[in-house]
Write a structure and sequence with these properties.
Layout: E1 7-13, H1 21-34, H2 41-54, E2 58-60, E3 63-64, E4 67-70, E5 77-87, E6 97-106, H3 112-124, H4 127-135, H5 139-152
Parallel strand pairs: 1-5, 3-6, 4-6
Antiparallel strand pairs: 2-3, 5-6
Helix pairs in contact: 1-2
Length: 154
């Protein structure tokens, strides 16, 4: 299974309203709840924040990939959000984050979320890919950018 199987247009928010890390995570989790991927927003949020306390998922280059495994997650998903203004996500490079990928996986899933995380991280190394994600204007277009890039890696 590829990223295309987990990134759906209904799980993409082209402009986040949040101004901080907690707000971003809550906003992305709300998309999961709205599409019935989770049973309990608070539980998923708490698990995500516990993960963030271990080490930031703001990996630098304007990217944050918060990830969570929780019994409140019904099925794996990737939620995307973007902020054109940038948000302080306590990133490793101390710079604002603009692109956010929340990976959510059921508690009993094996390493699926880690494989997705690794694949995303490899793709996001490329500046032209990050720039395309910043420039695209629709959720469908954004998903297409990801699918095309993923297919070029095969």
């Amino acid at each position: 299974m590829g990223l295309k199987d987990f990134i759906k247009p209904e799980l993409i928010k082209m402009e986040l309203e949040s101004q901080d890390k907690e707000g971003v995570i809550k906003e992305l989790i709300k998309l999961l709840k709205g599409q019935d991927y989770i049973t309990d927003e608070k539980s998923v949020f708490q698990s995500a924040m516990e993960r963030e306390q271990k080490s930031t998922t703001g990996i630098g280059n304007g990217i944050a990939i918060p990830h969570v495994k929780s019994k409140a997650v019904k099925k794996p998903a990737i939620v995307f959000g973007r902020s054109k203004k940038g948000i302080n996500f306590q990133s490793l490079d101390k710079k604002p984050s603009y692109l956010f990928f929340l990976i959510a996986a059921p508690e009993k899933s094996k390493d699926q979320h880690l494989k997705l995380l690794a694949k995303l991280s490899r793709m996001l190394v490329h500046e032209d890919f990050r720039e395309a994600l910043l420039q695209v204007s629709t959720p469908e277009g954004l998903r297409e950018v990801i699918v095309v890039r993923e297919n070029s890696f095969k």
